[in-house]
Design goal:
The complex is a heterodimer. Chain A is an alpha/beta fold. Chain A contains 6 helices and 10 strands; from the N terminus they run E-E-E-H-E-E-H-E-H-H-H-E-H-E-E-E. Chain B is elongated, with a radius of gyration of 31 Å. Classes of the chains: A alpha/beta, B alpha+beta.
């Protein structure tokens, strides 16, 4: 589903080159839940940005469903993101001027299928447990509610891949557990998830884990805590 | 929930963004309102003045107006802006003018400024006493009661004078009877009252006992002579002849009046257009700065939208649509407010600026409004284009991470 080969992202600062991501390889199969662990500044978020096509790599290739995204134009990458990738940010990233329900519907505005209707968005809000807050504006939502709305928004275009950048970073333990339960549920329903975090407590949610440090990524030994990818798991484009 | 619930569209997002950022949007709308209102006012006033001038000169009816030389400016004011004045010259001049070869008709007039505080009018009124037999100008201007002949103590009033036909008006203690009303010109003649010369003399004679201030109209004097010349005869040649035969006089022609008022209008035109250009010139960088600040404030939001899959064209459309909408709302508000002020205070404005004025046609007003609207939209688009381009071409992921809170 996702194939990363020798991907590097270098930034020039003054006269020196800093490799935020250095020669990373990664293969992700459909239905996997990949957890990338690392401290702040280790390059994990930059890697996620490249996987989502938001950052162009300095070297290496990234293939999503067989397509080398470096060959795509900005508009084609945007279209790929709109159709195949749901994104959950560390911060909620909700648009403050529209309601929770309308936030969920925003990605439908640039999906080739055209604007979605409110019923679908309400169903998603119901699925993530905040249907009762559909008409609330983001400033009136709690952190956990905002995160749930953001997850619903990431799912509205029925993506096959969900990318999450430290989605529980600013949440209390109870809310973090609830959100991770939601991610596990989505993974059980067939969505491939790639998540970065600095919290090793989340390892039990993943099917495979990696660690990043100074831009280099290494696969961690399989942990008995990890989940297994069922043989029957498949990518359900009709999700949810 | 029903599947027939309304969809969330691009325009809903634009509307919500405008609706839920009231403070900065009000500031932008106000800026656009000032630009559009100023430009519209300039166009409206200049257009109204030109139209009034054309109307007034068309109705003047005379090819030449002869007035005392030292009262030439006062005579122009009587015609153009309605500032009342009293002046005379010896009527032997009239006889000489009437007898000149090339002169078809000549009609004497006596100008008398009324006292302030007349029942009909807030300001002083110009009484123009005419000889109904010789006059060739007034009858064609009648809007109400056309074809009426002026009898004893009858008056025909300008469009701005209060008093219905059939009612009485009192000047210098003398009662006059309104028998006709002239069509509006937007010029000073709208504030004039026309009576017969003999009634003006009677009014002056009675004023010593009936009025608070005695009026004196010296015998065998006139204030102006209106002249119509034979077809093909040069007004300039007749004017030169008049000035030679009747020393101490000045001749005014419609073209001369047009030039005089064009000069006056020119200064106002410069002022009005200058104001509009200045406001526009200041507004572009101002709007640009506001747009840049707004774009900077929204950079994280825009980056999120891009990360969710929005192409750059969507972001560009979103920002331009918002700016476009604010420009239209602001311009319409500015044009609307300017229209209310200009129509409500047009007489005061025209008096203050010392220009003749009449309301332009609806088509012309729509044209001016459309021009002001178009300019506002262009300014709005120009001002928001560069900030929108900049923010649209920044790295969304970097922007998001820098903006994390």
């Amino acid at each position: 589903m996702i194939s990363v080969n020798g991907v590097t992202k270098a930034f020039i600062t003054g006269s020196s080159e800093v490799r935020a991501v250095d020669n990373v390889d990664l293969d992700v199969q459909p239905g996997e839940f990949i957890l990338i662990l690392g401290r702040s500044g280790s390059g994990k978020s930059t890697l996620l940005g490249m996987l989502a096509g938001l950052i162009r790599p300095t070297a290496g290739t990234i293939r999503i469903k067989g397509v080398d995204i470096s060959t795509l134009t900005d508009n084609q990458i945007a279209e790929l993101r709109a159709q195949e990738i749901g994104f959950v940010f560390q911060f909620s990233g909700l648009i403050p001027t529209v309601t929770a329900l309308e936030n969920v519907m925003i990605p439908t505005l640039f999906h080739p299928g055209g604007p979605g209707n409110r019923t679908k968005a309400l169903e998603l809000l119901d699925q993530v447990g905040v249907a009762g807050r559909a008409d609330a504006y983001p400033k009136t939502l709690s952190s956990g509610e905002m995160k749930r709305v953001a997850i619903a928004r990431a799912l509205i275009n029925k993506p096959s891949i969900l990318i999450a950048d430290e989605p529980t970073g600013d949440l209390d333990d109870a809310t973090e557990s609830e959100i991770m339960a939601l991610f596990r549920q989505l993974n059980d329903e067939g969505i491939t998830i790639i998540m970065v975090t600095h919290n090793p407590d989340l390892i039990p949610c993943a099917t495979r884990t990696y660690s990043m440090s100074h831009g280099r990524m290494a696969r961690n030994p399989d942990s008995p805590l990890c989940r297994r990818v069922p043989e029957t798991r498949y990518v359900n484009k009709d999700h949810p | 929930m029903s599947a027939s619930l309304p969809t969330f569209s691009f325009f809903t997002l634009v509307g919500r963004n405008l609706q839920n950022r009231p403070y900065r949007n009000i500031a932008v709308v106000l800026s656009f309102a000032i630009v559009a209102g100023t430009l519209f006012s300039a166009l409206y006033l200049i257009g109204g003045a030109r139209q009034s001038l054309e109307n007034g000169l068309d109705r003047m009816g005379a090819d030449i107006m002869v007035v005392p030389e030292k009262y030439a400016a006062a005579s122009q004011s009587v015609i153009l802006t309605g500032e009342p004045s009293t002046f005379f010259f010896n009527d032997t001049g009239f006889e000489q003018i009437a007898g000149l070869p090339g002169v078809t008709k000549a009609s004497p007039e006596i100008y008398v400024a009324t006292l302030f505080g007349q029942s009909c009018c807030a300001a002083g009124v110009q009484i123009i006493a005419i000889d109904p037999i010789r006059d060739f100008t007034i009858a064609t201007w009648l809007k109400e009661n056309p074809g009426v002949a002026m009898g004893k103590d009858d008056i025909i009033v300008g469009s701005a004078i209060s008093g219905d036909i059939g009612s009485d008006l009192l000047f210098y203690g003398h009662t006059f009877h309104v028998v006709g009303r002239l069509a509006r010109t937007g010029m000073g003649l709208d504030m004039a009252v026309f009576t017969r010369i003999e009634d003006a003399y009677t009014m002056a004679d009675e004023s010593g006992v009936k009025a608070v201030q005695k009026l004196t109209i010296p015998p065998r004097m006139v204030s102006a002579v209106l002249v119509r010349i034979d077809p093909g005869v040069s007004p300039a040649a007749i004017s030169d002849e008049i000035k030679q035969r009747v020393p101490g006089t000045r001749t005014l022609t419609p073209n001369g009046l047009l030039n005089a008022i064009s000069g006056q209008l020119g200064a106002i035109t410069w002022f009005l257009y200058g104001s509009a250009i200045t406001v526009t010139a200041v507004s572009i960088p101002l709007m640009g700065s506001i747009s840049a600040m707004v774009a900077y404030e929204r950079r994280k939001e825009i980056a999120v939208i891009q990360a969710l899959g929005a192409p750059r064209s969507f972001v560009m459309r979103l920002m331009l649509a918002e700016s476009f909408s604010l420009a239209i709302i602001g311009a319409l508000a500015g044009i609307g407010a300017a229209t209310i002020i200009l129509v409500g205070f047009q007489d005061f404005i025209a008096f203050t600026l010392k220009i003749p004025f009449t309301i332009p046609s609806l088509f012309t007003i729509a044209l001016y409004g459309g021009s002001a609207l178009l300019l506002s939209i262009i300014i709005g688009v120009i001002a928001s284009l560069y900030p929108a381009y900049l923010i649209n071409h920044s790295e969304p992921y970097e922007t998001m991470r820098k903006g994390e809170s």
